[in-house]
Amino acid sequence: MRLVLTALIFVMGLFFLIMGVNFLAMPLSAAAGFGLSPVGTAGLAALRADFPAFFFVGGGAMIFGAWKRDGDLLLVPAALFGFALLGRCISAIADGTETAFWLPMMVEASAVILSLLGSRVLPHRLT
Q1: 45-67 burial string, b = 16+ CB within 10 Å, else e?
Q2: pTM for the whole structure
Q3: Which of 1, 5, 43, 109 could lock 39 by a disulfide, CB 3.0 to 4.6 Å apart?
Q4: Where is the chain membrane-spanning (predicted)?
């Protein structure tokens, strides 16, 4: 159980790191996948700064937290992706949804669940 959970957290963390690299290297195509379109160089700079920061911190904390079996560190991605999920829920209520709306919500919910489970199951006691 612990090995499977560690592997799932690690793989999801790698997925988020790749998302961050994608926003750094190809911000226009990455943004299009999120329904975004930057306005000018300031918009491109925001895409290259804000999204990689979010995905690198979230994914990196998942990978390092799973590797070190650090439950406290796994609370970081749980909070990040939990707030992202909350924002999507508010948007679903306020703005409505479309067909592709649910996939990112499922990914974020999975990240939150795995991170919270990992924060409770993975830590080992040093006694």
Answers
A1: eebbeebbebbbebbbbbbebbe
A2: 0.91
A3: 43
A4: 46-67, 74-94, 100-122
